[in-house]
Amino acid sequence: MKDTSKIVHIDMDAFFAAVEQRDNPALRGKPVVVGGDPESRGVVCTASYEARKFGIHSAMPSRQAYLACPHAIFLHPRFEAYKEASQQIREIFSRYTDLVEPLSLDEAYLDVTQNKVGQPSATLLAESIRRDIYAATQLTASAGVSYNKFLAKVASDMNKPDGITVITPDQAQDFIDTLSIRKFHGVGVATERKMKALGIHNGVDLRSWDKMDLMQQFGKAGLYYYNIVRGVDSRPVVASRERKSLGKETTFDFDVGDKEKIQETLQGLAEEVEGSARRKKILGRTITLKVRYDDFETLTRSQTVAKPTRNANEVMAVIETLMSKTEIGDRDVRLVGLSLTNLVSEGEHCLPQQLELPLVFP
Ligand code: TTP
Ligand code: MG
Q: Which of 7, 13, 17, 281 stands the most exposed, by the fewest C-beta atoms within 10 Å?
């Protein structure tokens, strides 16, 4: 990626919680936590900025969140509402460029070097996107603007919520030098710990390491760190590819040993998957069962069928065979899921059938 590329990273603010506050005015200005029940083993998906003041954050056990802020309002996620907002923002992105790479429901990279609106300023373009998002969804987004993905992503986090940060090539090195290692996107918790043990706390520290030493310590990732700390990131923005799988999973409130209960749950998931496959007009050739036991050991078992399907009963027939290849019934289970992969669209699926029709010419 050249220094002349213009990359925008957009990330919605407190996404799930913001949707809830939008849809229920009584929740506005209040600490809202979206996730599992505090009485269950659930975790926090996200928390409103009001709740974050109490130290509540994503992935924290809901129980712990409750202890931190007992008067917070706890809500279950409503994924359909989040998906709808996500589709709205993606539609907005597509007005500006086709080079959109979504990272999750609420965030995406956009390469706006060339754009559909002929706006040479990536900053003005990002502001325009933020305005469009607010107008369409009444939700705020934050933006990072720079010349590569790494810097745009880090930038979008600097002025949250409802903010924008621009990092020009001139400013990049100073910015990175003072950045704490925790804020480097791509440095996970384990790497952060290792870096700190090596005396690397910020960009300057990291930049003092030579390439070979970093690669020796961190393998291939070492080369990535060597580059990004110098503001070099050549990863292109890759437009979203077609969906590769369609699945649903569920974590039980309590570990389950009863095979019938698990079967029932999977039947429900199969029906949900059938519904969404129907809406998306797709079928799958491969059916996968996922099981997580109470000790977090996780495994998958798959089978490919001759005729693509999404029919819940057909899927369940396969799932029951796959269940016999697991220890379901003998061990306690924490989570089950099922998915369809090897997807084909309805049109593709119909093709062989049409060819089988008797060929009658007028
Ligand atoms: P994020 O963008 O990481 O968080 P956020 O939008 O809630 O807040 P921020 O203003 O800091 O961007 O994630 C987007 C949504 O994804 C979030 O609203 C809920 C969901 N999510 C989870 O369900 N579990 C998680 O561990 C994280 C990080 C997010
Ligand atoms: Mg977000």
A: 281
Read off the pLDDT band of 150 (50, 70, 90): very high
Best of 106, 142, 165 for a ligand 1 pocket test (most atoms within 8 Å of beta carbon): 106
Give me ligand 2 centre to Cα 18, in Å: 10
Which atom of ligand 1 is the closest one to the Cα of 49? 10
Give residue 104 CA to ligand 2 midpoint distance, Å.
9
CA of 100 to the centre of ligand 2 (A): 17
The predicted model gives 141-155 an average pLDDT of 98
Contact 127, 13 (CB under 8 A): no
Marked catalytic residue, from 20, 107, 274, 327: 107
**Ligand 1 binding residues, C-beta < 6 A:** 11-16, 45-46, 58-59, 104, 106-107, 160-161
Ligand nearest, relative to CA of residue 15 = 1
Q: What is the pLDDT of residue 362?
A: 35
- pTM greater than 0.85 (yes/no): no
Ligand 1 atom with least separation from CA of 47: 7
Note if 91 is an active site residue: no
Residues 297-356: tens digit of each pLDDT: 889 999 988 888 999 999 999 999 999 999 999 999 999 999 999 887 775 443 333 333
> pLDDT at position 281, please?
80
pLDDT (0 to 100) of residue 241? 63
